[in-house]
Amino acid sequence: MILTAILAILLAAFIAPTLNRLLPALSHWLLALVPLAATIGFAMQLPGVAAGATVTEATSWAPSLGVALSFRLDGLSLLFALLICGIGTLITLYAGAYLRGHPHEGRFLLFILAFMAAMLGLVTADDIISLFVFWELTSITSFMLIGFNHEDARSRRSALQALLVTGSGGMALLAGLVLMGLASGEWTLSAIAASGADLRTHALYPAMLVLLLLAAFTKSAQVPFHFWLPNAMDAPTPVSAYLHSATMVKAGVYLLARLNPTLGGTEPWFWALVLAGGVTALWGGAVALRSTDLKKILAYTTLMALGVLVLLVGIGTDGAVKAFAGFLLAHALYKGALFMAAGSVDHGTGTREVGELGGLWPKMPVTGLCVALAALSMAGLPPFLGFIAKELVYDGTLDSIGIVAVLVLANATMVAAVGLVFVKPFLGSPAKATAHAHEGSIDLLAGPALLAALSLLFGLWAGLPQGLLAATADAVKGAPLGLEMHLWHGLTPALGLSGLTIALGVGLFLVLAPVKALLAGIQRITRIDHDRAWDCQLALLDGFARAVTGLFQNGALSHYLTIIFAGMLTLLGATLVMRGSLPRLTPGFAPGDALGVALALLMLAGTVGAIRAGSRLAAILSLSVNGMSVALFFLLYGAPDVGITQLMVETLTAMILVLVLGRLPLLAPGSDRPAAAKIIHAFIAIGLGGVVTLIMLSVLDQPLPLDLTRFFGDTSLLEAHGRNVVNVILVDFRGFDTLGEITVIATAGLGVFALMKARLRRKERT
User: Fold this and answer.
1) Are 251 and 551 contacting, i.e. CB atoms less than 8 angstroms apart?
2) 224: cis peptide before it, omega within 30°?
3) d(CA 208, CA 420)
4) Is the pLDDT of residue 387 over 90?
5) How many whole angstroms separate alpha carbon 450 and alpha carbon 135?
């Protein structure tokens, strides 16, 4: 079922451009049916998963490597799957309306559906190699979506920035997962968790932890890797609403939650996640209050929410894990609605600047109602799901006054942000942009309306999502917890903290101008500009690359060969010494080796002649002596077919080179190499030749395995009906390889023939 859903969404992605071209007005409606069907299919798994069951699937992918497309559906992955497919359905409808008439609408639908499939694979993958593949696919498809407006330099820069940051995190993820597999001896997440291997006490745990935290922090935009997320707002609004509120930016959060049972609970885990999450939450909330663009405000409040989620996973107590599950769902619902509603405001007014908006409610009442419901949930007011989630967050962190203080301050910025995204644009004094404002179409409003309504519905009837969220908390904790959700918990400390949060948030909004000035002053004092730091880092990397390229790529073939052979000498020699593979040299001489020694001396004479040659013709003839000597070696030691082949190749090569020499200029006097270069080249040549000789002697020192020899000898006549074993190997056992070699030679011959024919035609014309 899981793989079927992924493949169905991928198929929809591939046909999206064609379908959009044939049915431009209906294509997004038809394509939305695919994720809708997947949503229904996953929803049918709710009763079993809520009862504690787990759905697993496995399809062989690379059996020789032990890699399979293994999928696992528990509470955590099911919640993410429903968010990905459910919100993805609404985003597909929304994108069709938002980009209606755009020349690349079909391409956009392809990208968004491909991302949906990759994200679905990521959250359901059980095999760690499959997890990495889907992780990187989300980075690639998000790069295409963020850079969709590729004519805009800012979009291209933002897309590249997001790709480099999350892609580098992907490399860290691969290394961390491989270390985890090596340490546990298992290569699926479920097997690692069930094996009982105590990875927390393993010697590789620090390396694993650092690598996996880098992957999660870059993907989920934790400080200091947060700067790419606000810049990604240059993408079209459907991208912001989908990738950067409900799906991609939560991939890192998902990874941390998934690994919590096996890697969590240690001091390094706690402090890394709590510090990163707390700083990110405060930073995101503060910068949101300074922003004036609706999407930027929502982007920074997303940073705040991601920080809270990471902080809750880091705490890891039963209460914190329950709060994580509730806040994860609440944030996805209200933030998806707010992003889509912001796009509707932009679509209806032509601007997203808060200072240019006001009095929109009479002109856009449906959009205003959607924003109101979602914004009140974001503020954590009853009777919305956001209120219940905030109560769970406070209740799960009461043990630490410092963490509670951070959460209260961060949540207060969310309350103040409600004034920026709802009060000012819809209830404020009419602005110039209000004059031509108009309501959006049904497919533009369906998404925000449904998500905002669910925020209210799940708040009024908290029992509806309770089973799924309880299963999610159990999966994150790795043990049954039990979760009860109620709109009214009584007069509790959490309720008092909620009241304090609302009062503080309203106060921040009422004195917003001084607050903005204070925040701007703090930024000037700290002088931290992560975005400019990123640009400087790229500039330094580019300068280093240019310097290295200028050092090694100077256009001289002799320079390139010197570097290549010096590198080979260093690597091969170091390997021989470090592995203790130097051969045992036992002096001895057999009478039958006299002819071989004579041929070796002849080859040495040819080499000296090539070095001392004063013309190209003399060098070629000297090298031909080497080639002929090699052919005689083959003939002497029982390989006549190889010797004949070598003889033919050497003869033809010498003839072709002699013919070509007539077209080359004579060697100019004084063009000989400097003495220093000669010494260096001689050292490299002698050293590399000596190292290769030692390698060959080391190979001869080893016992010779005869398995292949016996196999070919036993089967050549019986199965291939040939007595010449070499011919049978070339034609039958490795026939495709031989065919490829013949094809290459034939292609080269045709190329030479075409060049010669073209040259003859030029002569005829002249």
Assistant:
1) no
2) yes
3) 42
4) yes
5) 29
Domain segments of the chain as ranges? 265-510, 514-545, 594-665
- DSSP lists the bridge partners of residue 69 as 59
Q: Is 101 left (phi over 0), alpha (psi -120 to 50) or beta?
A: left
Residue 37, amino acid: A
The DSSP H or E segment spanning 70 is strand 67-73
The whole-model pTM stands at 0.79
Give the CA dihedral 240, 244, 245, 246, nearest 10 degrees.
110
In SS3 terms, 611-642 reads as HHCCCHHHHHHHHHHHHHHHHHHHHHCCCHHH
pLDDT in the model for residue 184: 87
Angle subtended at Cα 532 by Cα 530 and Cα 533, rounded to the nearest 5 degrees: 60
Angle at 97 between CA 94 and CA 101, to 5 degrees: 145
Q: Please state, in angstroms and rounded to a whole number, the distance separating the CA atoms of residues 273 and 390.
A: 19
Provide φ and ψ at 350, rounded to 5°. Answer: 90, 10
The answer to whether 66 touches 181, Cβ cutoff 8 Å, is no
Element (H, E) at 6: helix 2-22
**Percent of the chain scored above 90 by pLDDT?**
36
Q: Measure Cα distances from 179 to 51, 65, 122, 198, 256 in Å.
A: 34, 16, 19, 14, 16
pLDDT in tens, 418-469: 989 998 888 888 887 777 888 888 888 899 999 999 999 999 998 899 999 9
**Torsion sign (Cα): 271, 274, 277, 281:** negative
Q: Inform me whether the pLDDT recorded for 375 exceeds 80.
A: yes
**pLDDT digit string, tens, across residues 390-401:** 999 999 888 889
Would you say 509 and 416 are in contact if contact means Cβ atoms under 8 Å apart?
yes
For 9-47, give the DSSP string: HHHHHHHHHHHHHH-TTTHHHHHHHHHHHHHHHHHTTHH
Q: Which two tokens stand for residue 765?
A: 């014309």
Q: Determine phi and psi for 579, rounding to 5 degrees.
A: -90, 0
- Residue 232 CA to residue 116 CA, distance in Å, equals 18
State the chain's mean pLDDT as an integer. Answer: 86
Closest Cα partner for 438 from 492, 526, 367, 515? 367
Which residue's structure tokens are 């391409």? 107
Joined together, the tokens standing for residue 567 give 């590198």
